[in-house]
Design brief:
The protein is an alpha+beta fold and 217 residues long. The protein contains 7 helices and 11 strands. Helices cover 37% and strands 23% of the residues.
């Protein structure tokens, strides 16, 4: 692995805090790196996942396909994002989601199950980090369900902007999605979203500049 890839790997939420025994831990996890082109699948719904992935560069999106051919965007991640941490702990569960490269990206795949029998110094730290990540995914899912339970699209959009996006110094909340993908994330069509954003600007609720949203009040 390159030095820049190792730096991302060492700083990710799964491996954070490991100092002593770092290289022994790395040997235990036996990482391999793969590059993906935009639109290529890292994980496919309906298939088992045996390793945890760490995004090293680029961006990925996880989506849930529906029987009718639609899809629901569940999450998006950049460098340091963790893939399949919830699934890898089970040998029987198949992935309910597809993970796609939103941009050209690289991911390192780790044999995290080896931690269950590993005796290296960092194994306990990583297992605790793993448990924290699973808990965080649960609460993220709970927030998502709460968002989709909002009947009004305006309320859904405001909740998304307030709870999922951190404002910049100038107050802008920058959405990682295109308008089409944002509409999918919010469970509506693009036309309805465009109309609602126009109404919200007219009502003084927000100002939109491309992917940047400025909330008033």
């Amino acid at each position: 692995m390159r030095d820049d890839q190792l730096e991302v790997l060492r700083g990710c939420a799964l491996l954070r805090g490991v100092d002593a025994g770092w290289y022994e831990l790395l040997e235990t996890l036996s990482p391999y790196v793969r590059r993906y082109e935009r639109g290529e699948a890292l994980v496919l719904a309906g298939y088992p996942v045996e390793r945890i992935g760490v995004v090293l560069s680029g961006r990925i999106e996880a989506e849930r396909p529906s029987p009718g051919g639609g899809r629901l965007i569940l999450s998006h991640m950049g460098a340091g994002g963790i893939i399949a941490d919830v699934l890898t702990g089970s040998q029987r569960v198949k992935s309910p989601v597809t993970v796609l490269a939103a941009t050209p990206c690289e991911a390192a795949w780790l044999d995290a199950r080896a931690l269950f029998t590993a005796r290296c110094d960092g194994a306990g730290i990583v297992l605790r980090n793993w448990m924290d990540l699973v808990a965080e995914k649960y609460f993220a899912l709970d927030r998502r369900v709460g968002l989709l339970l909002e009947k009004r699209l305006r309320a859904r959009l405001v909740q998304y902007l307030r709870t999922e996006l951190v404002p910049r110094a100038d107050g802008a909340r920058v959405c990682p999605f295109s308008r089409t993908r944002l509409a999918e994330y919010l469970g509506c069509d693009r036309t309805a979203l465009a109309r609602e954003i126009t109404r919200m600007e007219h009502d003084g609720v927000l100002r939109a500049e491309g992917r940047a949203f400025y909330l008033n009040g």
